[in-house]
Write a structure and sequence with these properties.
about 300 residues, alpha+beta, 3 domains, histone binding, hydrolase
Amino acid sequence: IRCPVKECDEEILHGKYGQHLSSHKEMKDRELYSYINKGGRPRQHLLSLTRRAQKHRLRELKRQVKAFAEKEEGGDIKAVCMTLFLLALRAKNEHKQADELEAIMQGRGSGLHPAVCLAIRINTFLSCSQYHKMYRTVKAVSGRQIFQPLHALRTAEKALLPGYHPFEWKPPLKNVSTNTEVGIIDGLSGLPLSIDDYPVDTIAKRFRYDAALVCALKDMEEEILEGMKAKNLDDYLNGPFTVVVKESCDGMGDVSEKHGSGPAVPEKAVRFSFTVMNISITQGNESKRIFEEVKPNSELCCKPLCLMLA
């Protein structure tokens, strides 16, 4: 209720109106303004009522909203009510609650997508245990699961590993197995040892080159399509594409300190990888570049071929 006293104009909850009025001591004829209770129980606050009582009290308003929704919004009562609620929240500067509600309405939820969490973990160089500690802390402090648990990240990670996407080379590649499974093998198998080579025991996770290449290109699908759009090459979805790849082998140093707990290990880790440098499409006699790696020396764009402990 808005206070009718001159130069006051304050808005007061119905239940506190009498109390507010008593603060205007200087006013004569104060009772002229007081709310007349016709007897019976005072009206309870809407949110404290049972669902049935809420329906009863809001019956007239609901009828009006329904009529408006049918006339203006194709009968979508939910959208009208949600929008009213959002406007009410924003009018009171409760933007945080409004943002969360908006996220739920758009089906996003308030949590981050597992792939986004994985990107955060990799870009901030967090180990699994460090990430798990952060996940637990945020969940305990905020009471909401904003970050996703580790198992969700592992599932998202599988989609990025060679062997995840089924594919077929046309024409088929010679001397290449059709099996895309990834196996753990002796990392030096197939390398002829020279006489002065010191025998090294290795264990490695090695991916088939073609499976790794398919996976890398699948991962870059959005960038490739955006590049084609920018150069107006939407009709050339079937290519032919020219993909330039840089291969590299990188010693990852002493891994004993990266294990965290447990005994120190004298191992060295080696990574054979490749980077997709650029992709272009030949249009007539002209070659148009649709993708170029901006940071070709960054380890974040290295696609693994073999991860080996020696």
